[in-house]
């Protein structure tokens, strides 16, 4: 029996490397229309920070949202940030002008020092790209003009977005969303992914990400869940690093887990050949499960390690991965399962016409409802950037939560329901194929 087969029998978890790619520019973007770009910014801000805007944006709304994003992406608390303001002083406490919002965003994105190195000539050159004429003694102070100029040069705001607005005009919801999403990006909290399926370099990026990943270790958190493993509270778990969270739209995202990188490359190539595109994030994962002593002496490698426990069995730690795929639409997301069931689901030992290393029970899941998927529970423990997940049937989740709380009364176990493929659901119910 190979390692994957052993793991599939026992583990409920069958389940910087990535590059933070920029949000699309607003007006005139080659790949997205203004409407599509605005929808993406809005979706991201609402999901990650609970931020939404009406057609017009007030100073209070914008600053509150800005403080929320900066506090979530830095070590500075929102309470401490509230003692200061990124917005310049104004006689009108409600109206938010375009130049004020861009100035505040430049400061929040930690760009002001660079901006203040700009000479008047350099400022004029940068602002000319945005259709803004800068003259000393004009409407904008030199400092404000420097902040706008550095925002344009770094892409914090698109030149085209400023061309379509007056610097003394009111801030639209579209411009506010763009600025806030870009501030999050400058702090490393934008959508986080390697590339897209259509990207010609995606296969090399996947291989490189796998080669650079290694078994994850999480100290006291891992010691706690290993105790649960020894006591048969759970039969397995996976360990991930939240730094690789893609921040994708759950409505359009599926996460697929496996242990063979060639399988991932073939899966992406399959989707590409079928005309399906998606953003692709590689999330390193360590899968832990019980390795029985009757299976024989385990062979250890850098990607597969074991620790013997009191009863003679072992806890095995295996390097694996999750692929998070954010499809272009919900309809494109629905095309994923038929392809997996046809080309990546093993139904017999000698089966041909499958992707390399296809599993009897593939594991992929969605945070939002999909037809023909089953609902199970994820039991989650966190410590800093480390996240432990153990999947269970819904009716078994309370026992898992209670068990961990008995091991450590202070531990917090988060639970949520999500949708998985039927083969993995059958596995959780004790079926081997």
TrEMBL record:
Residues 1-29 form the signal peptide. Keywords: Signal. This is SLH domain-containing protein. It comes from Brevibacillus brevis (strain 47 / JCM 6285 / NBRC 100599). The lineage of its organism: Bacteria, Bacillati, Bacillota, Bacilli, Bacillales.
């Amino acid at each position: 029996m190979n390692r994957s087969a052993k793991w599939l029998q026992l583990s409920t978890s069958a389940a910087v490397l990535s590059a933070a790619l920029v949000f699309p520019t607003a007006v005139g973007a080659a790949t997205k229309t203004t409407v599509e770009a605005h929808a993406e910014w809005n979706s991201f801000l609402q999901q990650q920070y609970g931020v939404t805007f009406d057609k017009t944006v007030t100073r209070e709304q914008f600053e509150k949202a800005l403080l929320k994003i900066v506090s979530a992406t830095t070590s500075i608390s929102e309470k401490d940030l509230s003692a200061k303001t990124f917005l310049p002083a104004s006689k009108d406490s409600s109206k938010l002008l375009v130049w004020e919002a861009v100035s505040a965003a430049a400061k929040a994105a930690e760009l002001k020092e660079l901006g203040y190195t700009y000479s008047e000539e350099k400022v004029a050159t940068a602002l000319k790209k945005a259709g803004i004429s800068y003259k000393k003694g004009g409407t904008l102070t030199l400092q404000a003009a420097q902040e706008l100029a550095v925002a344009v040069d770094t892409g914090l705001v698109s030149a085209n977005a400023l061309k379509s607005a007056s610097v003394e005009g009111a801030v639209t919801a579209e411009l506010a969303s763009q600025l806030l999403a870009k501030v999050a990006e400058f702090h490393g909290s934008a959508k986080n992914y390697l590339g897209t399926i259509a990207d010609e370099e995606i296969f090399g990026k996947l291989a490189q990400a796998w080669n650079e990943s290694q078994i994850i270790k999480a100290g006291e958190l891992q010691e706690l869940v290993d105790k649960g493993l020894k006591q048969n509270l759970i039969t397995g778990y996976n360990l991930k690093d939240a730094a690789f969270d893609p921040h994708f739209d759950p409505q359009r995202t599926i996460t697929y887990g496996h242990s063979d990188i060639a399988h991932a490359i073939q899966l992406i190539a399959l989707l590409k050949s079928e005309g399906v595109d998606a953003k692709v994030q590689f999330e390193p994962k360590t899968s832990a499960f019980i390795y029985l002593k009757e299976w024989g002496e385990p062979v250890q490698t850098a990607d597969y390690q074991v620790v013997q426990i009191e009863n003679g069995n072992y806890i095995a730690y295996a390097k694996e991965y999750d692929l998070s795929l954010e499809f272009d639409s919900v309809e494109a997301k629905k095309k994923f399962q038929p392809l997996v069931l046809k080309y990546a689901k093993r139904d017999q030992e000698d089966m041909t016409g499958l992707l390399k290393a296809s599993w009897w029970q593939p594991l992929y899941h969605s945070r939002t409802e999909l037809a023909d998927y089953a609902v199970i529970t994820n039991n989650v423990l966190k410590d800093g950037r480390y996240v432990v997940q153990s999947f269970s049937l819904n009716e078994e989740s309370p026992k898992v939560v209670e068990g961990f709380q008995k091991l450590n009364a202070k531990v917090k176990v988060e639970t949520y329901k999500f949708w998985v493929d039927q083969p993995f659901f059958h596995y959780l119910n004790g079926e081997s194929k």
